[in-house]
Structure formats: C-alpha cells, structure tokens
Design brief:
Structural class: mainly alpha
Mean pLDDT: 86
Number of strands: 0
Distance between the termini: 28 Å
Largest sheet: none
C-alpha cells in the first residue's frame, strides 16, 4: 500500500472539510448530487471523446497502482539474471531453454527466447527496443487520460455553476431564495476544481512515475539478456545492472552482500 497516496488524499479532504466547518458551514452545503452529475458526467464524456474506450478502461484499471506500491523486485531480478549468466557460462546459452517456462514476465521471456534461438546481440536489442518503444507509447497515454480529466473538470464545473445561476435568475421574485441558490450553484465549481487538483492531476503524476519504473525494469531485463548473450562475467553483470538501482535499493543490496 502506498502510504503517501492515502495520507495525501486524507489530508486534502480533512483540511478542506475542517476549514469549511471552522467557517461555520456544514457538509450539506457542498453535497449536491446534481452538481456532481454535471461535473463528473461531463468530464467523463469529454475524456471518452478524446481517447478510445480501451485506453480509458486501461487507465481506470491502472488506477490501483496509484494507491498500491508494486513489490520492489529489482534485487531479485538482478539475482535471477546473474544465475542465468552463471548457467550460460557453464553450459551455454541454449541451456536456458529449460528455464523459459518458469519466467512469468513476458518481456524477459521473449528476450531470453530470442537469445536461446541464437539471435545476434545487436539484432536482439533492435527487436526488443521496438517492443519496448511500442509499449512505452501505449502506456504514456494512460496518465494523459487523468491529465485531460484534470483539464476538463474545472471548466465543466464553471459550466455547472452558470447553469445553476440561470435557474436562480428565473426565480428572482423569491429574493430570499436567491442567495441560497447562488451558493448551491457554485458547488459545481468546487467539485470541478477540487477533483482536478486533489485527484485527477496528482493521480496522473503518480501513475507516470509507476510507468517509468516499469520501463526501467524492462530496460534492466534487456541489458541483462544481451550481456548474457555476449558472455559477460556474471560478477560484472551484477555490477552493471546495479546501476539501475536507486540509492535505497543499493543500500539493501550492500547489506545483503
């Protein structure tokens, strides 16, 4: 679980609600189903117009990565690649064919399959780099879904406020209700600006970080497989791949060593 994401959302919501209550307001003033329907329905419609349905659904599925931290398996990956290098050094790269079925990561399995099939290192790098770039282009669109939602929702919130004001102006004969109606109308603006700055845009930023981490992990796999194919010393391979690790991961590696 990503504690920073949960704490961030909690602090934002508590801070806003506490400020409202300290000013003498109440939650009923900002709980307006009609305003929520206008803002979130309009935002979803605009996003669906901009992006294909499959991209929007993929982005929603990846939203869980904003609140759940993936397991840090880079150290385990390095050890796996070093073991492969040791085995290839003793028995040849072809001996790794027996390990292909045990590899769960599709990218690593595909790269290692090409290596076992006798693909030259330069050609393997070219093939897998194309796959990496294509996947990267697809994944780059996912944070864009939430960035677009963060751009649309404030404007649609203003649209909801204007619609509310139009309804208020039609009942100017009941002057005591005008002030209350204007307050209700501006709730849509609160929803739009709040959703954009407290959820959509931060979620897009966190998701972009997660995607970058996955891309780096695949780069590590590619460099490891090519190094094995080139016959690099397993100890040198471990040092080479450790360059992909962050400082905290480097400390864990040194402690384990």
């Amino acid at each position: 679980m990503d504690k920073a994401s949960f704490v961030g959302v909690l602090l934002a919501v508590v801070g806003i609600v506490a400020g409202l209550l300290l000013e003498g307001g109440n939650l009923g003033q900002i709980v307006q189903p009609t305003a929520a329907m206008i803002v979130f329905g309009g935002t979803l419609g605009a996003v669906l117009l901009q992006f294909p349905l499959r991209t929007v659904l993929d982005a929603c599925r990846r939203l869980v990565h904003v609140f759940l931290t993936p397991q840090d398996e880079n150290l385990k990956l390095i050890q796996t690649l070093v073991n492969f290098a040791n085995k290839a050094r003793r028995s040849g790269v072809v001996s790794l064919d027996n390990d292909l079925a045990k590899i769960e990561e599709p990218f690593l399995r595909q790269a290692l399959t090409l290596a076992v099939d006798g693909t030259e290192p330069a050609e393997l790098r070219k093939i897998m780099s194309l796959s990496l770039d294509a996947r990267g282009d697809t994944e780059d669109r996912l944070p864009g879904v939430f960035e677009s939602a963060g751009g649309f929702s404030p404007t649609i919130g203003i649209l909801g406020a204007v619609l509310g004001l139009i309804q208020v102006m039609q009942h100017l004969d009941k002057i005591e209700e005008v002030g209350k109606g204007i307050a209700v109308a501006f709730v849509a603006t609160i929803y739009g600006v709040g959703a954009a700055n407290l959820f959509f845009l931060p979620a897009a930023g966190k998701l972009r970080i997660r995607i970058h981490e996955e891309h780096q992990r695949r780069q590590m796999m590619l460099e490891g497989v090519i190094s094995i194919l080139e016959g690099i010393n397993p100890r040198m391979l471990e040092v080479k791949l450790s360059g992909f690790l962050e400082d905290s991961q480097q400390e864990k590696r040194e402690q384990a060593a």
